[in-house]
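Lecture notes, unit on binding sites. The following record was shown on slide 14. It pairs a sequence with uridine-5'-diphosphate-xylopyranose.
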Amino acid sequence: MNKERINHVPHCLILPYPAQGHMNPMIQFSKRLIQKQVKVTLITVTSLWKTISHKNLSSIEVESISDGYDEGGLSAAESLEIYKETFWRVGSESLSELLQKLSTSENPPNCVIFDAFLPWALDVGKSFGLLGVAFFTQSCSVNSIYFQTHDKFIELPLSKSEYLLPGLPILAQQDLPSFLYKYGSYPGYFDIVVNQFNNIGKADWILANSIYELENEVVDWLVKIWPLKTIGPSIPSMVLDKRLREDKEYGINLSDPNTEFCIKWLNDKPKGSVVYVSFGSMAGLSEDQTHELAYGLKDSESFYLWVVRDCDQTKLPKGFENTSQKGLIVTWCPQLLVLTHEAVGCFVTHCGWNSTLEALSIGVPLIAMPLWTDQVTNAKLIADVWKIGVRAFADEKEIVRSETIKDCIKEIIESEKGSQIKKSALKWKNLAKSSFDEGGRSDKNIEEFVNALAQF
Ligand code: UDX
């Protein structure tokens, strides 16, 4: 370790957007910084702070700020638009008060690493003289598309059938994030993803939870305009060695993960025989889609472990759980433990960025069933560029039929194409590990960041 670092004890504040897919990678990155002798304080909103502060964050200090909805967070707001606006206003004031308080502490912070979804945190941090660091929880490819939308290089509503954008393969309209090709569908989320770039020019660093090799061309393009470094995959080192044993090693669970139940069930299944199915923490399937998926899984005659969140349980076909001896349906699971379990042979996924990076880093082949937002672009890259999965395409009614799901499972498990995909998955797994390991590109980037922090 260099001398300055010992003398200065850098202190980073980490501010994720309050959602599972944002908390996980930023908490994991916090642990990485702590390993490199950086003090970290996680900042979360009061409603979440009440539920997470006592769980598995022993090495990270936690402070809270208000988003204006201390009881219930986003779910207590009238709409996402109102939540976003309130969080921006109340959060800025509350973060200022916290920074004021911390500035008189023994080891005051010198840096704020904020989720790019919360750009106002950069202005607050700068007003206290802190180093301002944006953290991308989504892929660089997707962020480059949103950036070009922000800067109007991509005009909305979309008018072309294909787009050739810097560092990306040719993308059909439907391969662009859903907020673009279904312009107007979720105005609140659209504003959040595009507003990430309002003040990005003022950020001292931009850290992206990605692996350079995965998106090298688009990263090379972005580093010409931004101080961007890839630091991913932001997951525990043990995962990459398949040694993860305790769920508490990873991020936080906003729901009970049913760990023992899931692992016990997986333990007596043959190697590579189980299809793991999950659509992340936000989007839900329609009832029709849930039925098609249920029968696709059943007809595939494979074992399956399917996460159906509490809010979606009523969409299951009546009595379905009792009709199949081969499935286990849970409301949430310890995803990394499941993906690293040798019984798991493939993953039917919505292609959320965390799920994508996790599976890629563990070498599990994917069946891509994107629902919205960045997931469609990730699905395109999964199937056609990284070749670590197959795409389960929807029909004209936007439903992926049971037959398609069954065929995709068989394709991964039994076909020659499936063997090629498994080889490709292994290649990416090794690349992810070498980037993460000491001296790898992501590790060096983190090291470079920590050294800059120490000298700031
Ligand atoms: C959201 C968006 O949907 C996604 O497209 C975007 O890239 C990030 O924000 P989410 O839907 O939650 O994320 O999906 P994902 O990014 O995959 O994150 C889900 C996280 O929850 C993963 O870290 C996964 O390991 C974890 N998880 C999921 C569990 O621990 N248990 C589960 O049962 C399901």
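Take-home: Residues 1-6, 244-248 have pLDDT under 50 and may be disordered.
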